[in-house]
């Protein structure tokens, strides 16, 4: 299930000398969308401080599908494509609000991290249960590569 995780306006200072949004900002927005979704599932900053568990990205892939320029309003929707015991794969779709054109697809693999031992660990059961509700129809709970 896709859900809105981010809405923002591209600022002029996000743009390079050619007037296009610079690639460095796309990764930050994908990370923000990931934290928005995982926070909604129960792994926000406060929960991380209490449980000493966090979510860290171990892989990211960005597919640029359109241009963004200063003043463009962008909406990101996110879902979970695959869910494993310790990892999940997120998919973010970024669209320009004015015309609905998709401008970016971002996939991220994130791992549940024991913040004290600095090792991957299983997601807490409540997080895993909540994550299942955001699985896309084409996905499964097979282990994430």
Q: Which descriptors apply to this entry?
A:
7 strands, seven-stranded mixed beta sheet, Thiol Ester Dehydrase, Chain A, alpha+beta, elongated
Q: Briefly note the structural class of the backbone.
A: alpha+beta
* Rg value: 16 Å
Mean pLDDT: 92
Order of helices and strands: EHHEEEEEHE
Q: State the separation between the terminal residues, measured CA to CA.
A: 21 Å
Sheet of most strands: 7 strands, mixed
Please give the CATH architecture.
Answer: Roll
Broad CATH class: Alpha Beta
- Overall body shape: elongated
Uncertain ranges: none
What is the total tally of β strands? Answer: 7
Our count of domains comes out at: 1
Give helix % range: 10-25%
Instruction: State which percent range the strand residues make up.
Output: 35-45%
Please name the fourth-level CATH homologous superfamily.
Hotdog Thioesterase
What's the helix count? Answer: 3
Q: What is the CATH third-level topology name?
A: Thiol Ester Dehydrase, Chain A
Tell me briefly what this model is:
This protein is an alpha+beta fold.
Please give a structural write-up:
This protein has one domain (3-135): Hotdog Thioesterase (Thiol Ester Dehydrase, Chain A, Roll). The protein is built from 3 helices and 7 strands. It has helices spanning 23-40, 45-51, 125-132, and strands at 3-9, 53-64, 73-83, 87-96, 102-114, 119-120, 135-140. A hairpin with a 3-residue loop joins strand 3 and strand 4. The longest helix has 18 residues, at 23-40. The chain starts with a strand and ends in a 5-residue tail after the last strand.
């Amino acid at each position: 299930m896709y859900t809105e995780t981010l809405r923002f306006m591209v600022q002029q200072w996000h743009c390079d000398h050619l007037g296009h949004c610079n690639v460095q900002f796309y990764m930050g927005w994908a990370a923000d969308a990931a934290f928005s979704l995982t926070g909604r599932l129960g792994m926000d900053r406060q929960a991380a401080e209490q449980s000493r568990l966090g979510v860290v990205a171990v892989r990211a892939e960005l597919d640029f599908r359109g241009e963004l320029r200063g003043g463009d309003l962008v909406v990101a929707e996110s879902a979970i494509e695959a869910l494993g015991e310790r990892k999940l794969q997120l998919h973010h779709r970024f669209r320009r609000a004015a015309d609905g054109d998709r401008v970016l697809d971002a996939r991220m693999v994130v791992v549940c991290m024991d913040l004290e031992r600095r090792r991957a660990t299983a997601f807490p059961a409540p997080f895993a249960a909540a994550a299942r509700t955001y699985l896309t129809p084409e996905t499964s709970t097979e282990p994430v590569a």
